[in-house]
Design a protein that fits this description.
Elements: H1 7-17, E1 23-25, H2 66-73, E2 81-85, E3 91-96, H3 101-110, E4 118-120, E5 125-130, E6 140-143, E7 146-150, E8 156-159, E9 171-174, H4 184-191, H5 197-200
Antiparallel strand pairs: 1-2, 2-8, 3-5, 3-7, 4-5, 4-9, 6-7
Helix pairs in contact: 1-2
This protein binds zinc ion.
Zinc ion (ZN) binds next to loops.
Length: 214
């Protein structure tokens, strides 16, 4: 193992240790004649900028193997975004709601559901990591101010400190260290019952601090 790990490699190893398999993903670059889509893949018509595996890798190659992560992030994927994959080691439930996450989390706890590790991709969505499940939980549910959905098997999920194509950095709102994964079915069905923004405003409790791996 190298004496000095780059911050990206060190974080990748920590995330893998926490049980999240990773695959290097493309990253945002300033648009120019070779990167019209703002994606490091150089495809001008890239359909998923900064959110697909590099080179010929596939989501099925996401791994927690130290050897492989060292090979990727200390080699020519040193700048790659850190991506995990929905329904590999965790399920991912995505929420769009106009209320702050602190109110959503407080409402969940008041209803007996711990939110677990939560990601903020920086674009108005919130991503909840849950335990794997074989129980059908539904895929999409409209809410008065948004929606809740469970990401399909194989969907790419960027992890901090990755950046999305349009700039924002992904951040942990809760976890991932020492935060238990909630049950997928329970969390999805709780989020389906989220009240309106006005009703959620009563749930202004302190949110627990995120404990990032780095
Ligand atoms: Zn691309």
């Amino acid at each position: 193992m190298p004496n000095t790990l780059s911050p990206w490699l060190a974080t990748a190893l920590d995330l893998a240790k926490a049980g999240l398999p990773l695959v290097p993903a493309h990253y945002p670059v300033p648009p120019d004649r070779w990167h019209l889509s703002g994606c490091s893949c150089t495809r001008p018509d890239c359909p998923t900028p900064a959110a697909h595996p590099i080179r010929r890798l596939t989501v099925d190659q996401a791994t927690t193997s130290t050897k492989q992560l060292l090979r990727w992030w200390s080699g020519n994927a040193a700048d790659a975004n850190l991506a995990t994959v929905a329904d590999a080691a965790v399920e991912v439930i995505e929420l769009r709601h106009s209320s702050p996450h602190s109110e959503v989390a407080a409402w969940l706890r008041a209803n007996g559901v711990e939110p677990g590790p939560v990601l903020d991709p920086g674009d108005g969505r919130t991503q909840f990591l849950t335990s794997p499940t074989n129980v059908p939980v539904g895929w999409y549910w409209p809410l008065p101010p948004g929606w809740v959905t469970k990401l399909e098997h194989g969907s790419i999920v960027l992890l901090p400190p990755s950046h999305q194509a349009d700039g924002p950095a992904v951040e942990w709102l809760t976890g991932p260290v020492d935060v238990e994964l909630p049950d997928c079915w329970c969390l999805f069905h709780a989020l389906k019952r989220l009240p309106t923004r006005a009703a959620l405003a009563d749930y202004r409790h302190e949110e627990r601090d995120a404990r990032p791996v780095r």
